[in-house]
Write a structure and sequence with these properties.
seven-stranded antiparallel beta sheet, 4 helices, 10 strands, about 35% helix, extended, Transposase
Length: about 210
């Protein structure tokens, strides 16, 4: 089921659609290995960041890139980059920031960007990086969400395994609505207490009633 979208997000703002992946058992094992590996890498980077008190993305990349690739066998270059960015974002967003090393859940969602995934919209498949090589997995979804994937620019995505079901939550950019110029210019509005509103041309709303 796709993530519910507010009416506000339908007007030129980023939004998210959710696709259901239908991997074979071998592909599911490869995806599970990718989840474990990327979360392990993020935890390694997080401990390095906390140990060296380095939390900004650029400095953390310089500190941790080669170390995490050496410590986590099978981790690809772009997967390491995403793990570092994920750690920097986690420390930037946490309420109790930097009081202890943040540990990532082994089976938590992992991010994919354009270098780690690619869509074949005609075949309704997505190619995803795994430690053992890319896997091409079919996907299904609601008609509106499939149409959005086919027609809108695709951003990053999160790979999620929920009760044995593989999901891909894909970020999209909705088109901006056509904005028309106002007829006769603009009208100012002043909200008050005695009167609900008064316009710049001295019309009192809601009026005598």
């Amino acid at each position: 089921m796709a993530i519910r979208r507010s009416a506000t997000k339908r007007h030129g703002l980023p939004t998210v659609v959710q696709l259901r992946l239908t991997p074979t058992p071998a592909q599911a094992d490869a995806l599970a290995a990718a989840v474990l590996l990327c979360n392990q890498a993020a935890t390694v980077v997080s401990r390095l960041a906390w140990q060296h008190r380095t939390f900004a993305a650029v400095e953390l990349h310089r500190l941790a890139y080669y170390q995490v690739r050496a410590q986590v066998a099978g981790l690809g270059a772009q997967a390491a980059v995403r793990a570092i960015a994920r750690v920097a974002g986690a420390y930037a967003n946490r309420r109790a920031t930097k009081k202890r090393a943040h540990i990532f859940r082994p089976h938590g969602a992992i991010p994919y960007d354009a270098r780690l995934m690619s869509f074949n919209r005609d075949a309704r498949t997505v190619s995803l990086w795994t430690p053992t090589g890319r896997v091409t997995v079919p996907y299904i979804g609601r008609p509106d969400d499939l149409k959005a994937i086919d027609t809108l620019p695709v951003g990053e995505a999160d790979l999620v395994c929920r009760r044995g079901v593989w999901l891909l939550q894909v970020g999209l950019t909705l088109p901006k609505p056509v904005v028309r110029e106002p007829v006769g210019g603009f009208v100012g509005m002043d909200q008050g207490v005695a009167n609900l509103a008064v316009t710049s041309d001295r019309v009192v709303l809601p009026g005598p009633a």
